[in-house]
Design goal:
The chain has about 130 residues and is mostly helical. It contains six helices and no strands.
């Protein structure tokens, strides 16, 4: 298969995985401390609250897209490229998305780590 097709698929997997992670984090922040909800109202209330939260459902959708996209790419590309590239690049995009969408403080050490991870993927790709 073509290199462009493989890297396009890797990009789609990374973006959908990052969207899922950010939406899941947003949902859980909005829901609040699950342990307290469990103590007050029980497991059924926790499951209902999480399973009906719109951000959680959207996160689940994006995570499924990422997972099934990974399965598809692995049917034509080398696992030694696809898995490290998707995992590593998702680390970098998660740091960026956490900063932009969740307003998390990402320190220099994390940015440097993300840069080194991307450099590793570039070496892997050649």
């Amino acid at each position: 298969m073509s290199v462009l097709r493989t890297w396009s698929a890797i990009a789609a997997i990374v973006l959908s995985s990052t969207a899922g992670d950010v939406l899941l984090s947003r949902a859980m922040r909005q829901i609040g401390h699950v342990g307290e909800l469990w103590r007050r109202q029980g497991l059924r209330a926790v499951l209902k609250t999480i399973a009906t939260h719109p951000s959680f459902l959207l996160a689940l959708f994006f995570m499924a897209v990422s997972f099934f996209g990974l399965l598809a790419v692995l049917s034509w590309a080398d696992v030694s490229l696809v898995v490290p590239a998707t995992a590593s690049l998702a680390y970098a995009t998660n740091a960026l998305a956490a900063r932009l969408f969740l307003h998390e403080r990402v320190d220099r050490r994390r940015w440097l780590s993300a840069l080194l991870v991307c450099a590793g993927v570039a070496v892997l790709a050649t």
